[in-house]
Amino acid sequence: MEIFTITRYQMSELLSGIAYTGSKSPLVILQQAWAKTHAAEKTSGKMLGAFVETSLPPIFEKLIKMTARSTGFSLNEIIALGNQIEYSHYSITSVQNWVKRDFKDLISVPDHGKKYSIDQAALIFMIDDLKATLDFDSIRKLLTIVFDQGEAGNTRRPVSPLQIYTAYTSIFEQLDKNNDQVLDLSGHESGKRNQDHILEHLIKQKADEYAAGLNEISEKEREAISNLVFITMLSVQTSYFQSMAKRIFNATLFLQHMTP
Question: Which string of DSSP letters, residue by residue, matches 84-128?
């Protein structure tokens, strides 16, 4: 059976579709995500057979059957959603530690009874991406700079976690047009060494362009947002290579001493 996973940008679309009236429904978003990776079956008219061979996760079944927009998710639902993001793995123990201890002040208590808001879910997904490159203390400092609500009673944020999650995941998808999980670059000169600055400049340019388009924020806030988008994009790229290394390592252990 094929496992139905989605990209980070598709997850950002899904979160928006769940939260906002007027957005595409979860069903439409999931249909489009599945069809994108099954273009040949769509062209040949064999989509039914291909989908029957796809394992539809219970959390996706639940979203498809939703009759109204949702205000949030339980922690278990957030973890179930996170585990459908390609090259991601969430455990209940780790995420419970995040909300109860490691990132308690950032994530805060559930906004809706026992349910966490869509922004809180996006923040958890962002933390998971950032841990590919930063330690927890560094992640706390970075996210606090952007999402600090200021003095008591002041709930203003320059941007929401869902906005940032959508920003860096959409830019990553734009720069990975062939969906091979490696950012597409041009401008390398054959025979020249030390051209890693090309990637750095490209990502920073895209992050700056996003931040420049935000209204009613200060230059200091704009720079902090650009830097967060820049770092999270690099972290997403890193998470792919980490996942690939773990797969090869696990295969090596499993096959060791196996009789041909």
Answer: TBTT----HHHHHHIIIIITHHHH-S-SBTTBEEHHHHHHHHHHH
